[in-house]
Amino acid sequence: MTPLELRNLFNLQYNNIFSAAAPALNDYEISLYLTKAVKELVQTYYTGQADGNPVDSTEELRELLAFYTKEKNITEIISGNSKYNCEESIVSLDNNVWYILNEYILTNDRWLRVKPISYDQLHGLLTNPYKQPNAFRAYRVEQNSDEGLILKIYSKRCVDIYSINYIEVPEPIIISSLSDVLPGLTIESRATVNIPRYPNNWLWDLIINRAVELATRDYKSNDLNSQVQLNSRVQ
Predict the structure, then answer these.
(1) Which of 42-51, 189-198, 212-221 has the highest mean pLDDT?
(2) Which sign, positive or negative, has the C-alpha torsion 48, 13, 68, 138?
């Protein structure tokens, strides 16, 4: 899909809704709606809000989310004894990590599934001798920082490798150089053309349809009920 094709397809649907009386949108505004649309689609399909099904439940969901599903092995780990009489390992994740799907640690030459827990659960589990980390379980809590997500992993032994499957944050879709619209203009700190290379064209249909709906909601007069109905749709 080229930037020109994206612009033309968006404007075609957008103008049809307004019967050729639509307020003109520049490339920055179109790029904003396309970016917001793809993020809403990925989030909605991941959480199962689209049809009540979880991730990977249908072929359509798998194809949509597969593009944004990544795997990473991290060896830069800070480890040390914790106050809970077990190992505390700290792992830093990039800001592009959105949803964690699966996570494992390699410890003592053995792969172990990591169970995410809340801070409210942390003290109770780690002070209970029957629920402490052992050769079969490890726990993880998380916190945010300016650099990204920080994970604290509690295990019986030191962590050698932290392996993660996750859904990354979609990059902004930008159909032209934003500096041509207004110098210094950016979307998520990016100003140059950026068009994802999706493996299937039907995905672009979903994104454009949703982007046009978002633009319609903002520029067309509507009441509360129409807002609720529009927000519940992704296609």
Answers:
(1) 189-198
(2) negative
